[in-house]
Amino acid sequence: MPGFDWAEAAKSEWRRRNAGLFEERPMRVHFRTETIERALKLIEPKGSATVLDPTVLREKYEAVVQLSEFAALYIFHLVGTKPKTYWRVDGLKSAGRGLQALCALLLFMNDWDIARASSAFARLTTLPPAADGTEGNVMGLNPFHDYESWQILHEAKRVAARRTDDRPVAEQIDAIKTEMHIAHREWLAKTIPHSDVL
Predict the structure, then answer these.
(1) Average per-residue pLDDT in the chain?
(2) Which residues in 143-176 are b (16+ Cβ under 10 Å) and which e?
(3) For the chain, first and last CA: distance in Å?
(4) Which residues on neighbouring strands pair with residue 94, listed in sequence order?
(5) By the 8 A CB rule, do 180 and 6 touch?
(6) Claim to verify: residue 102 and residue 123 sit in the same structural domain
(7) Which domain covers residue 53, as residue numbers?
(8) Could you tell me if 35 and 60 lie in one domain?
(9) Does 133 share its domain with 192?
(10) DSSP 22
(11) How far apart are CA 151 and CA 154, in angstroms?
């Protein structure tokens, strides 16, 4: 077939052969470039140190994302401006980091009750602007800033524990590509015995 993509075919075959590594995962994680880069930076200075298991915070993280989605829609309907969005680990959109930090704070102050925190957020939007211009001085620290990166590390550790081939994945894919080329040449030689097979 003209234009056959051997590299993509080898990757697809690697995924098929290694499907068991990714079964029974409790959460869906998107391995996006920026999240992977951040995850690598998190473990770089720590070496083999223990890292955060994000599964213990999953319910709270989901509550923060749910409240921030509500807050983003609320702001949009109130002033017609959407806050900056980012991609969540399961592929859904949510509000930007600043709004997420505020929502985490509101949930914490309201014992992680989404209804009470939503009400608190709505009350905040009805407050008049500060006469002295200090309304911009409130800063929230986002406890879930690196949540997606910790999820990547946690899932990578789970996958690594199930691996049977310790070679780097790129090396395994190259080996599969070579196998596929050899199998193709053998098939071609049997199909057209007197042709020159490269």
Answers:
(1) 75
(2) bbebbbbbbbbbbeeeeeeeeeeeeeeeebbeeb
(3) 15
(4) 86
(5) yes
(6) yes
(7) 25-162
(8) yes
(9) no
(10) G
(11) 5
Nearest to 31 by CA among 22, 20, 43, 23: 22
Contact yes or no for 95/72 (Cβ under 8 A): yes
The predicted-structure confidence for 60-85, as pLDDT tens digits, reads as follows 888 888 888 888 888 777 766 655 55
Q: Which residues pair with 95 in a beta bridge?
A: 85
Q: Which amino acid is at 171?
A: E
Query: Rounded to an integer, what distance in angstroms lies between the CA atom of residue 100 and that of residue 65?
Result: 7
Please indicate, yes or no, whether residues 97 and 179 belong to a single structural domain of this protein: no
Both structure tokens of 190: 């049997």
Residue 186 and residue 92 share a domain: no
Give CA–CA dist 147/125, Å, rounded. Answer: 27
* Domain count within the chain: 2
User: Which pLDDT tens digit goes with each residue over 7-37?
Assistant: 999 999 988 888 887 776 655 555 666 667 7
Q: Based on the fold, state whether residues 137 and 175 are members of the same structural domain.
A: no
List the one residue out of 86, 34, 54 whose CA is nearest residue 150: 54
Map residue 11 onto helix, strand or coil: helix
